[in-house]
Specification:
The chain is an alpha/beta fold and 660 residues long. 38% of the residues lie in helices and 19% in strands. The chain is globular, with a radius of gyration of 32 Å. Bound molecules: adenosine-5'-diphosphate and magnesium ion.
Length: 660
């Protein structure tokens, strides 16, 4: 239906409404308040505060006094049922015409000690209810909330039809309110209880549709025929035997789950979830080996060049002697090198291609690509996840994430995937000791650093800035380099790594650190993701209050990667809840729950929002119970005969399938 049919909306308003995403009468009607203001009446006989909200009846005709040119005063008597109050309003003379004897009004204001005089900030003409619930709408410049509410009311007056997507059986099961009724209730709440029912219905509908979509995506993906393979697992065991450690049971289970996916008909779409340092890389390497055994190419994409390099070396070390040919493909390759590698890929002269985004630029032509792995998946955002597969190929897909996602979130973000989890870290690891120190304690910190250096261990030092800034009084890499050199330079080697350095310089530094030629590596958060130097046992983070929980957790995860006791020293002159959380636990799942609590679901744990589903009404955290039911119901309904005949719902699910 056309918006212009709503009384009061003209061309200019149409344009403004479009900014709010309102382009039809339906979308106007379904433009719900983002929150509600509950107005409770004060009990005049038991006041706790001098700010009051009372209902009453106007008893006297308002008098107006002009105090001077720009100030006038209006007063009248108000009968509240228990008291007569003198109500005064400043500069509101124009209200006089509405304030007749007998008018029912609600007064917002401040009352004096004698409970006689009220200076009112607001008068509302309303019926005398115990509680008023005011809907609050998001709006935009040029549209007042009042106007928006008026238009919505006009639209509600027109005869409109809304489709209820909740299947009848669930409407009955939960005794849901009728949809049309719930829409009225959301715009004009009659009571807290009714409003709750209306919202519940709307949120359920939203989540149910989302979960149906997840079912559809999952179905589509696993329906796509996977690759037919046979993999002799004995050969995989041979590689496992050469490793310098035993796989943990979670690692083994993950490998087996992936093996099952790869050898089955269905296409793999799996998330491998495991905390920092839990050992996901080896699972990826073994997966690529399985894929190699069945004759296909694999790719492994990392979010940074340093990490890609590291994976490349790792994979080579483990698989070279088994005849696997590996290539590194990043953005910084020279044209000639790149061309050579691309030719090798196209001719199937390499089996594993490890790299950054450069793996999926236009000109890369794979030869029998059977497996695509993405490391640190949360860094890429959902859109990128789609891009990988748009090359006319349908390989199996494995995502890895060190971000332990609270269950609430995993359900929505990764609802279309199977999940493998590595929960326990490799045996023999000691818990990282985390200390919180002020800048004035830097001497103690240096002493602790020296102790580690003497044991021939290595140290990371992190600062929020690269160079000095006159805008922010924060520690920076350049200055720290001088300080550390002053303290340790005589006997130990200090290195620097940051985002402004050229790729080749960064690589050299990383290489030197890995080889133990650098003892103290000073860096920004470029070091954050994935880097693995097992001899590093201390992480010192300056101005640590500047970093988010997830970044700090990731940074800390750079140490504690062997049996050696490791330390993380958080230096901050400010105490924050985040830092407090870190000193109390190293459990990534707990930390992510805390992050969730501290930040809400808006910007969780560094997960990029691009393309992520944002709900209009539901909040995955606050409404987790509804989410659980919606998921359970959607999964059952998706398989039911009723769904097969529900063409309207099927049509809706077909729309904007943007995830694949
Ligand atoms: P992440 O899961 O953070 O990517 P990595 O795969 O980089 O972790 O592994 C961290 C470190 O643990 C590496 O040095 C790796 O060799 C080592 N590691 C992995 N699995 C085991 C294991 N089962 N036992 C001992 N060490 C292991
Ligand atoms: Mg990793």
């Amino acid at each position: 239906m056309n918006l212009k049919e709503v009384k009061g909306i003209g061309d200019k308003s149409l344009h403004l409404l479009k900014k709010l995403g309102i382009e039809s009468e339906e979308s106007l009607i379904e433009y719900y308040p983002y929150r509600y203001h509950f107005i409770k009446r004060s009990d005049l006989e038991n006041l706790v505060d001098d700010k009051i909200i009372v209902d009453g009846v106007v008893e006297t005709i308002p008098k107006i006094f002009y105090i001077h040119k720009t100030l006038n005063k209006l007063s009248f008597s108000l009968n509240t049922g228990t008291r007569i109050l003198t109500v005064t309003l400043f500069n509101r003379a124009y209200l006089k015409q509405n304030l007749n004897i007998g008018s029912k009004v609600t007064i917002f204001g401040k009352i004096d000690k004698n409970l006689r005089n009220v200076v009112a900030s607001e008068v509302r003409f309303s019926s005398l209810l115990k509680e008023t619930i005011e809907p609050i709408y998001h709006t935009t410049n040029g549209i007042t909330v009042t106007k928006l509410a008026q238009w919505i009311d006009q639209a509600l007056k027109n005869d409109f039809y809304v489709m209820d997507y909740i299947p009848k059986e669930y409407v009955e099961k939960y005794h849901f309110m009728n949809k049309k009724e719930s829409i009225f209730e959301m715009h004009h709440p009659t009571s807290a209880q009714q409003l709750k029912k209306a919202l519940m219905r709307a949120k359920y509908e939203e989540l149910f549709l989302f979960m149906m979509k997840m079912c559809e995506l999952k179905e589509n993906k696993s329906n796509k025929k996977g690759l037919q393979r046979t993999i002799p697992f004995k050969e995989v065991e041979k590689v496992i035997e050469t490793l310098p450690f035993l796989l943990t049971s979670d690692q083994r289970k993950s490998v087996e789950e992936i093996y099952t996916d790869l050898t089955s008909q269905k296409r793999m779409n799996r998330l491998l979830q495991g905390d920092v340092g839990s050992g996901k890389t080896i699972v990826a390497i073994l997966s690529m080996y399985m894929n190699y055994l069945s004759g296909y190419q694999s790719t492994l994409m990392a979010p940074t060049e340093i990490l890609a390099q590291q994976h490349y070396e790792n994979a080579n070390k483990i698989l070279f002697s088994f005849g696997v040919r590996t290539a590194l493909l990043t953005g910084k390759l020279k044209t000639k090198e790149r061309r050579e590698i691309l030719a090798k890929i196209a001719n199937k002269e390499v089996d594993l291609i490890i790299g950054t985004h450069a793996l999926f630029t236009e000109d890369v032509i794979y030869n029998n690509l059977g497996l695509v792995i993405t490391d640190e998946q949360h860094r890429f955002g959902v859109n990128q996840r789609g891009n990988l597969k748009n090359k006319g190929i349908t390989p199996d897909v494995l995502y890895m994430s060190a971000t332990p996602i609270p269950r609430t979130y995993a359900l929505t973000l990764y609802g279309d995937m199977d999940i493998s989890s590595i929960k326990a870290s490799p045996n023999g690891r000691k818990e990282i000791i985390t200390l919180l120190r002020k800048e004035e304690d830097v001497k103690e910190v240096l002493t602790r650093m020296l102790e580690e250096l003497k044991k021939k261990h290595q140290i990371y030092v992190i600062a929020p800035l690269i160079e000095e800034s006159d805008k922010m009084d924060l520690e920076n890499v350049e200055e720290l380099e001088q300080k550390m050199n002053r303290a340790f330079g005589k006997y130990y080697k200090v290195g620097v790594l940051h985002g402004k350095m050229k790729g080749i310089e960064k690589e050299k530094v990383m290489f030197d650190f890995q080889e133990g030629n650098i003892d103290i590596l000073i860096s920004t958060t470029v070091i954050e993701v994935g880097i693995n130097v097992v001899n590093a046992t201390m992480m010192v983070i300056f101005d640590s209050y500047r970093f988010g929980l997830s970044a700090l957790h990731q940074l800390r995860g750079r140490v504690g990667r062997s049996e050696l006791q490791s330390y993380c020293i958080l230096i901050s002159n400010y105490e924050t809840e985040r830092l407090d959380v870190l000193t109390k636990t190293t459990d990534g799942f707990k930390i992510s729950e805390e992050d969730f609590r501290l930040r809400g679901s808006g910007d969780l744990f560094g997960i990029k929002q691009s393309g992520m589903h944002a709900f209009k009404l539901a909040d995955v955290k606050a409404d987790f119970d509804i989410l659980k039911h919606a998921k359970m119901d959607a999964e059952a309904y998706y398989k039911s005969d009723a769904f097969q005949e529900n063409f309207i719902l099927k049509e809706i699910l077909k729309k904007n399938e943007d995830l694949d």
